[in-house]
Amino acid sequence: MTHGYSRSARAAELLMLGAISAAALALLFEAARVGLWIDELPGPGLYPGALLVLIALLSVILGVDALRTRTQLSVAAASTTGRGRDVAIVAMSLLLIPFLLPLVGFRPLAFVYLLGLMVFLAPSITVAKTLGLSLLASLIAFGAYAFFAAAFRVFLPLGRLTGL
Amino acid sequence: MPDILTTLAPVFSPHLMALLFGAVAVGIFAGALPGISATMGVAMASPLTFAMEPLPGIMMLLGIYCGAIFGGSISAILLGIPGTPGAVATTLDGYPMAQRGEARDAIGIAAVSSFIGGMFSAVALAVLSYPIAAFALAFGPREYLALVVFAMTAIATLSGSSLLRGLLTGAIGMFLATIGIDETFGMSRFHFGSGFLMGGIAFVPAMIGLFAIPEILVAIEQRFKTPPIRPVGGWLPRVRGMSRLLPTQIRSSFIGLLVGVVPGAGADIAAIVSYGQGKTWSRDRAAFGTGHPKGLASAETANNAATGGSLIPLLTLGIPGGAVTAIVLGTFLTHGLQPGPLLMKNNAELVYQIFLAFALANVAMLAIGFATSGVVGKILLVPQNILTPTILVLCMIGAYAMRNNVADVGVMIVVGLFGYLLHKIDYPRAPLALGFILGPMFESELARTLLVVEHWSGLFTPISTVIWILTAGALLLALAAKRMRRAAAETMGREVNATKPQT
Question: Which of A68, B15, B113, B359 is deepest in the core (most CB within 10 A)?
């Protein structure tokens, strides 16, 4: 099962497996609380409890395997150096969406995200391009709102602060 | 049997025909774009079906599914990059044909072959479904338990390079499905006082997150330049010499259908197996991989035949065979319909209409594929910095549309980030989806079985024993499929390396 891959990937894998096995063991208590056995029959906690044991076990096995695996810098890792920061920025911004959406509303939030990402990901940017992208972002944000409301009766949220 | 003409007439209504053709067109365009898979397209469209009646909703998803499987061949031929996993084998001969200036012929072969494979599986679906469902009416809890475990062998097939990794993500999916109300006892589990978690994690937003968000983040990370697109060279594809390919297409249709029925073995495996068989049976097998029409026809016929094949266990037994049919199953359940023998018995009209809709989707695919092949090539030129944010916004809409709940958008993002992490460390995501949808079925059938069985030997009835044997066979097939995928990846690496986009 050994194979070579980057140190950062191995570290990420070990971190993930550690978190999963810790969470699985912690959740076992909750499974026991809802009841593993009731009147000599399996209770509501038995099946998820068994799954949690399996998850913890598999995480440990895979973690041991990952520790034994030799690491090497992969070509793919080298070629995306620097872009990891971009992904991290976008990922962090995504986590803000559930909090901002009810406050700001779909249309302004979608416009800001669209424009922000379009500019962020553009290979080169000028004032004229930014204006063009702004127009496109507003068309998509406001157009999508109207289209989904009319065609699919999906009414996207309005913002408590903006009313939009 | 209901009056067939009266039953089928609603499918031909202008509204539903427009919806079907529109869905197929969307599927073709989405499938043609590298980074948008058929699974992603169906996942994103699924929430939109909740405002519809079951038939239009299912028709829309089937249209996108059929269209996307064919659409993947267009970027495979013009770019050398498969738009969907099912188009991997298409690249081997389709792209060399385009490089020789035969792109019109290649797209014509792909369109006609896809149509033949799809129609073959549509006929098989209509002919085989009722006998299978009638047989399944005799199933009890032990048979259903064996059947669910059989379906779960798909987790092995979808596990990629490591079975243990697939088992882990599959088990995580099964556990996530336990959050919320337990069906057997009516008790709420793992909600920790949260009203949102008490309702459980919604399947569709989680699937949009799992399959769409990682692709978006990968697109941001890679930001590769689109390689030169081979010109189509004309408005319509060419269909000359198609009759010589008919024996290949017939054989590939059978292969695609059979592979499609097996849990976890989807369009990509069907195409690879059929391509291999086509090469074996061909007199000029050395020409395969250099732009041989039979190679292209083998792959494209089989990948579309697998779409109908995968619907057979879904409709007759209620068992999804892969991520796409798992999402379609989720849509059925949301409309209060349980696919399986009882659906065939109690909603026969709807089932017949679905059969017809699936056949018409393949007709639409042929027509739209021919009409738009030149235009689709232009779509491939849309810059990543416009496409990626637009897809992200569509995902937000899809996740919210499920229950008009902002928290579902949060679920999509959290699951999506987890899916991205899984992708980066080469852990398969599809088993998580399958575990999520099969987990509740497994738990309820296990509970029912334990009520009737006193000793483990009671698990084995004549029918359930056959299913357990098929399960063992499917596991062996899963191991063989891994080898086939690995061999295909090695071949692809050699053949496609020269055309790989530079980061």
Answer: B113
Print the SS3 string covering B186-252: CCEECCCCCHHHHCCCCHHHHHHHHHHHHHHHHHHHHCCCCCCCCCCCCCCCCCCCHHHHHHHHHHH
> In terms of CA atoms, which chain A residue is nearest residue B52?
A152
Closest to A154 measured CA to CA, from B193, B44, B449: B44
Alpha helices (runs of H) in B33-84, residue ranges in sequence order: 38-45, 54-78
Residue B420 has pLDDT above 70, yes or no: yes
* ipTM value: 0.89
- DSSP class of residue B178? T
pLDDT tens readout for residues A91-126: 999 999 999 999 999 999 999 999 999 998 888 888
The first and second tokens of residue B86, run together, are: 């099912």
Helices (H), B79-202: 88-99, 103-136, 141-157, 163-176, 195-198
DSSP assignment of B396-434 equals HHHHHHTTT-HHHHHHHHHHHHHHHHHHHTT--SHHHHH
Q: If contacts are CB pairs under 8 Å, which of residues 216-275 in chain B contact chain A? A: 217, 220-223
**CA-CA distance, B323 to B417, in Å (whole number)?**
19
Does residue A105 sit in helix, strand or coil? strand
Number of residues that this document lists for chain B: 503
Kindly report the number of other CB atoms within 10 A of residue B219's CB atom.
21
How crowded is the C-beta side of B183, counted as CA atoms within 13 Å?
12
Q: Which residues touch B147 (CB under 8 Å, ≥6 apart)? A: B139, B317, B319, B467
Q: Could you tell me the pTM of the whole model?
A: 0.79
Read off the tokens for B32: 């043609």
Residue with tokens 């810790």: A22
Taking the CA of residue A134 and the nearest CA in chain B, the distance in Å comes to 11
CA A32 vs CA A35, A47, B176: distances in Å: 5, 11, 17
The two structure tokens encoding residue A133 = 């992208």
Q: Are B190 and A30 in contact (CB under 8 A)?
A: yes
B413 and A52: CB-CB below 8 Å?
A: no
Strand A41-42 with A37-38, pairing = antiparallel
Note whether A31 contacts B: Cβ–Cβ < 8 A.
yes
Measured CA to CA, the distance from residue A150 to residue A148 in angstroms comes to 5
CB–CB of B52/B11 below 8 Å?
Answer: no
Q: What is the pLDDT of residues B161-199, one digit of tens each?
A: 678 888 899 999 999 999 998 877 888 889 888 888 888
Nearest CA in chain B to A150: B51
